């Protein structure tokens, strides 16, 4: 297990290096630069001072080397080009917790309800509950999250005035955006769990357990869920990272001061340092979550021995 973790950590850093390298050169391949429109009305010498300050007057390979040096040795992601004086690291630490709180609630709601609905559908195949769950799943996949958010705002804030429309601070401000963000996850987890349950139910050991008179509760909790949930856990890894990039629409609708709005604005403004900083942050979350998912496999099903290929 220790060797596996060390090997995966090395793979993580190698993956991060590849992502950083590709992103660094891709964003600089776009014509223009972030200071062109800001500095076009300034004197020529002032423009040159700006370019020198942010290192944009150096060859691209030198800029890449400086970025890696500052990142590896000092953990410094640089200063925003669009907002001079604002450190990228400080911005991430300030606004990421907001997106993280919203994302964790959305993942918890989506995973919990999705698993429950999937189990209900799997044990009631071609019956009323199954049709209802599949209808909800189709809606969750087909209807965009911003449409769900608008509907939630209309019914719960305009028509019935139960929850606030926009804002951030209290728990009540997180309810509607969390539900809107989790709706697609509920559908995805429900479909996967239903399919896995149907597959597990038809296995010989399940039929044997039924023949031995095992109660339905024990059958579901000890046999079906443990084996059917493993493929679903795999989806959790990408979900953790995607909440930071996929929630910017929801954050805009509910006026939530999260990281999503900075991600969008940094791309449109060609804020190189902010793009790189958020890329490093999100990529680290993604590869770390994949490692956690692999470790959770062994906790959910102790028969799995990581790195040995044995059960």
From TrEMBL:
<feature type="transmembrane region" description="Helical">
    <location>
        <begin position="102"/>
        <end position="124"/>
    </location>
</feature>
<feature type="transmembrane region" description="Helical">
    <location>
        <begin position="162"/>
        <end position="184"/>
    </location>
</feature>
<dbReference type="InterPro" id="IPR000515">
    <property type="entry name" value="MetI-like"/>
</dbReference>
<feature type="transmembrane region" description="Helical">
    <location>
        <begin position="274"/>
        <end position="300"/>
    </location>
</feature>
<dbReference type="InterPro" id="IPR035906">
    <property type="entry name" value="MetI-like_sf"/>
</dbReference>
<keyword id="KW-0472">Membrane</keyword>
<comment type="similarity">
    <text>Belongs to the binding-protein-dependent transport system permease family.</text>
</comment>
<keyword id="KW-0812">Transmembrane</keyword>
<keyword id="KW-0813">Transport</keyword>
<dbReference type="GO" id="GO:0005886">
    <property type="term" value="C:plasma membrane"/>
</dbReference>
<dbReference type="Pfam" id="PF00528">
    <property type="entry name" value="BPD_transp_1"/>
</dbReference>
<keyword id="KW-1133">Transmembrane helix</keyword>
<protein>
    <submittedName>
        <fullName>ABC transporter permease</fullName>
    </submittedName>
</protein>
<feature type="transmembrane region" description="Helical">
    <location>
        <begin position="131"/>
        <end position="156"/>
    </location>
</feature>
<dbReference type="GO" id="GO:0055085">
    <property type="term" value="P:transmembrane transport"/>
</dbReference>
<keyword id="KW-1003">Cell membrane</keyword>
<feature type="domain" description="ABC transmembrane type-1">
    <location>
        <begin position="96"/>
        <end position="297"/>
    </location>
</feature>
<dbReference type="Pfam" id="PF19300">
    <property type="entry name" value="BPD_transp_1_N"/>
</dbReference>
<feature type="transmembrane region" description="Helical">
    <location>
        <begin position="9"/>
        <end position="30"/>
    </location>
</feature>
<dbReference type="InterPro" id="IPR045621">
    <property type="entry name" value="BPD_transp_1_N"/>
</dbReference>
<feature type="transmembrane region" description="Helical">
    <location>
        <begin position="228"/>
        <end position="254"/>
    </location>
</feature>
């Amino acid at each position: 297990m220790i060797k596996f973790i060390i090997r995966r950590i090395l793979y993580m850093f190698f993956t991060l290096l590849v992502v950083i390298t590709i992103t660094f050169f891709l964003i600089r391949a776009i014509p223009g630069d972030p200071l062109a429109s800001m500095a076009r009305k300034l004197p020529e010498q002032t423009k040159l001072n700006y370019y020198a300050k942010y290192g944009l007057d150096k060859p691209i390979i030198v800029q890449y080397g400086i970025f890696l040096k500052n990142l590896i040795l000092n953990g410094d992601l640089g200063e925003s080009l669009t907002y001079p004086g604002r450190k990228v690291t400080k911005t991430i630490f300030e606004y990421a917790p907001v997106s993280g709180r919203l994302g964790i609630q959305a993942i918890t709601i989506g995973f919990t309800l999705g698993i429950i609905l999937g189990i209900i559908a799997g044990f009631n195949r071609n019956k009323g509950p199954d049709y209802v769950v599949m209808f909800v799943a189709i809606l969750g996949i087909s209807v965009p999250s911003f449409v769900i958010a608008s509907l939630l705002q209309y019914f719960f804030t305009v028509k019935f005035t139960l929850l606030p429309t926009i804002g951030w601070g209290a728990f009540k401000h997180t309810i509607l955006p969390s539900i809107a963000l989790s709706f697609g996850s509920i559908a995805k987890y429900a479909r996967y769990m239903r399919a896995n349950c149907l597959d597990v139910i038809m296995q010989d050991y399940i039929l044997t357990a039924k023949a031995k008179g095992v109660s339905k509760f024990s059958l579901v909790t000890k046999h079906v869920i443990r084996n059917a949930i493993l493929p679903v856990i795999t989806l959790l890894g990408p979900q953790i990272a995607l909440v930071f990039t996929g929630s910017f629409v929801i954050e805009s609708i509910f006026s939530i001061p999260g990281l999503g709005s900075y991600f969008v604005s940094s791309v449109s403004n060609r804020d190189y340092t902010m793009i790189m900083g958020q890329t490093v942050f999100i990529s680290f979350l993604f590869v770390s979550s994949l490692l956690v998912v692999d470790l959770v496999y062994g906790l959910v099903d102790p028969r799995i021995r990581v790195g040995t290929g044995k059960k």
